[in-house]
């Protein structure tokens, strides 16, 4: 076992981890941050996406020990300081960018990475950026609209269901 320390969502954390412990396991089981989902264990789905030192990373492909000293942001860290939904989270809610919700944490995290790098993406750029994240429910249309809204773009309102 190795002691692993990092800053997660602005808070210093540490814990014991075996060398083979994945970052997603360290976050979920060691820190109780269960918003980061384990979907496929093969880095295909993107449900486990977090930010490590400001970059989107699939946490099922990174060992916890490799995040030693890093700044990690999970979906829990995307909320506003008062606990209310952050801009991207609110847009996903407003534009029905989720259904079952399993992919949502990873989608929000990859959307934040996209908007950090490209604050005014086109629909094509959004769809291209989402390529490594799988959603089995929505068909991506409302996810794209939610990201456009989070970017401050004019998006038609979603009809009430």
Automatic annotation (TrEMBL):
Pfam families associated with the record: Fer2, Fer2_2
EC number per UniProt: 1.2.5.3
PROSITE patterns: 2FE2S_FER_2
This protein's record includes keyword Iron: yes
Key words of the record: 2Fe-2S, Iron, Iron-sulfur, Metal-binding, Oxidoreductase
GO MF term list: 2 iron, 2 sulfur cluster binding; carbon-monoxide oxygenase activity; metal ion binding
Family matches, as InterPro entries: 2Fe-2S-bd (IPR002888), 2Fe-2S-bd_dom_sf (IPR036884), 2Fe-2S_ferredoxin-like_sf (IPR036010), 2Fe-2S_ferredoxin-type (IPR001041), Beta-grasp_dom_sf (IPR012675), Diverse_Oxidoreductases (IPR051452)
Record-annotated 2Fe-2S ferredoxin-type domain positions: 2-78
Protein name: Carbon monoxide dehydrogenase small chain
Organism expressing this protein natively: Pontivivens insulae
Gene from which this protein is expressed: coxS
